Amino acid sequence: MADNEYDVAVVGGGLVGVATAWGLAREGCRVAVLDEGDRAVRASRGNFALVWVQSKGLGLAPYAGWTLRSSNAWAGFAQTLKEETGLDVCFQRPGGFHLALSEKELEARANTLKRLHNQPGVVDYKTEILDHAQIARMLPDIGPEVVGGSYCPFDGHVNSLRLFRTLHTAINARGVTYLPSHRVETIEREGGVFRLTTENGLVSAGKVALAAGNANMHLAPMVGLEAPMKPERGQIVVTERLRPFLNYPVTTLRQTDEGTVMIGDSKEESIDPSGLTLGVSATEAERAVRQFPLLANVNVVRTWSAIRVMTKDGFPIYDESETHPGAFTVCCHSGVTLAANHALTIAPMIARGALDKSLVAPFSARRFHVQEAG
Amino acid sequence: MFKRLADMGAPVAITVDGKAVSARTGDTVAAALLLAGIDHCRTTPVTDAPRAPYCLMGVCFDCLVTVDGVGSRQGCLVPVREGMTIETQLGKREAGR
What we know:
heterodimer, A: D-Amino Acid Oxidase, Chain A, domain 2, 2 domains, B: mainly beta
């Protein structure tokens, strides 16, 4: 075996990993993606598929700019993927809504957005608070209980299962080696080469990009990095396919390009991916019917739960190791929204061997140690 | 294609896509459609392929029709009732119906 089979080993074959791998391959790197098997707990198969902007960045203003950057790059990203694979990920960016079912909810939403936008140096999301009548002009099927909401023109959504398939197709076409059932057990660096032991043998590479979601928590310390994670469970309710009636995604509800309506943005502390809490699904469905009464008689065909990849403070972590040069973390909650950034911005930095601090310094895990960060 | 083995049950008048169809008490909507010679009761939401009642026991969901204005009812699980209005369901269901 050669000392250095690959330029970069990407650990993790979910959306973050394959988006990064695709970007690396475009830079001319020889890339391997080390993935778990079919039984991996995989957020990429359970997510809600929003390319979402309006609420991101309260508490870390640069995250707002980072999110908007990806949102702005998304249409071109989707187009390039289509040219390379012939597959359409159905990216749409009509703007999106958050709907409030009481004056109290609306006030809370308005306050959150105000605090977000009052942060120094934050980008302008052009989010507006609208009343019932204004929303009804764009979403004619809202119910009388919708008192108002917020609208941001940069919000959108995508067919995320197709995005996942498309990225895998694209990395395959670009010669990336995809290694399933290669869950990484240890990572060591010797003589400038990373050696990754997996359940199916050893892989070596010049650089390592950790894109393993919540598992980054255990992997990062192996290369002198850290990724404090706080996974949580979400549940989604899916209806039968319906004729298009909803032209904009809503934070809790969206109609896919194929007609199904996905409902849900629940948060639970449980991290059992096989469990479902009926009360949570029922609450999600009940709120959806109050938002859109025409859903009352619609049939539910699926429900599922999935584990969110979530860093301890909810913001992304991008880092490069000082003790293990060539090791990087690419870790975030919003693998769909930020896919364009990972492919087009982060991957080229890793290919060059250094993160561009002017863009990603705020996302270092050093923020978790304010005393030492200096 | 189908014929009734015995004329059991009282006659029941229903309509299918506005046309009068006669059924009998105890028939399911799916049985009535088959007896009326209707060769498909819906088309699929994505490819518009024609579908007819198949399993007749609530499993296959191929007999979905609009019954009295409510879409995606399983015809094989709904007994006919005097004056019932049945519509074939073409493509995706309309929310609110």
